[in-house]
Amino acid sequence: MSEEPGSSGRKPAGAAVMQPQVTAAIRAAAFEELAEAGYGKLSMEAVARRAGVSKPTLYRRWSTKEDLVLALISEVAIAAADPPDTGTVRGDLRALLAVMADGLTNPFAARIIPDLLAQAVRVPALREVLAVGIGQSRRARIELLLHRAVERGELPATLNTELALDFIGGPLFLHVMLGGDPTGAEYLDELTDMLLTAFGAAPTK
């Protein structure tokens, strides 16, 4: 069982060292447990057992499974939402859609996301985690892409950015949930063009 300084019962001189390899093992184990058992049956004990660490080592990082799931999903979701800067709104949007499509079709994500959304209907704490910890942070980052396009004169200043943000992620998510493959170049090209038309993009020169 992999442990850290202080986990054997001897108190370290300072704060316990958070070894990166231990944290990485816990993250990997948590993703696997979440994909296999689902959020409802996910337990901190099972994650610790799969990661090969003690429960104190796990609880030193995350005190509840809600905290653990938030850390895992938000890290992946927010990283995937970093807005590309290609110099044009079409290039930015096309690149963003490709990253989002890859994320949604990831084997782990394909099993985890539907389960989390279903559980969020019944678990207020999880719903809050998804809405505030992930949704708002992700939307704020993607909004930068739209603001850049407005500043370049490619999108109108009157653009409803909140509605535009819904448009960007909605079609991809629905397509995947209904069993479609959104990773094809033709599909992403057409979706990009349709979104730009809906946003009132200026004609390309």
Automatic annotation (TrEMBL):
The keyword ATP-binding is annotated on this UniProt entry: no
Keyword Nucleotide-binding: no
GO MF annotations in UniProt: DNA-binding transcription factor activity; transcription cis-regulatory region binding
Keywords, alphabetical: DNA-binding, Transcription, Transcription regulation
Annotated ranges, domain HTH tetR-type: 20-80
Feature: DNA-binding region: 43-62
UniProt protein name: TetR family transcriptional regulator
Domain of life: Bacteria
UniProt cross-references to InterPro entries, sorted A to Z: DNA-bd_HTH_TetR-type_CS, Homeodomain-like_sf, HTH-type_TetR-like_transc_reg, HTH_TetR, Tet_transcr_reg_TetR-rel_C_sf, TetR_C
PANTHER family in the record: HTH-TYPE TRANSCRIPTIONAL REGULATOR RUTR, TETR-FAMILY TRANSCRIPTIONAL REGULATOR
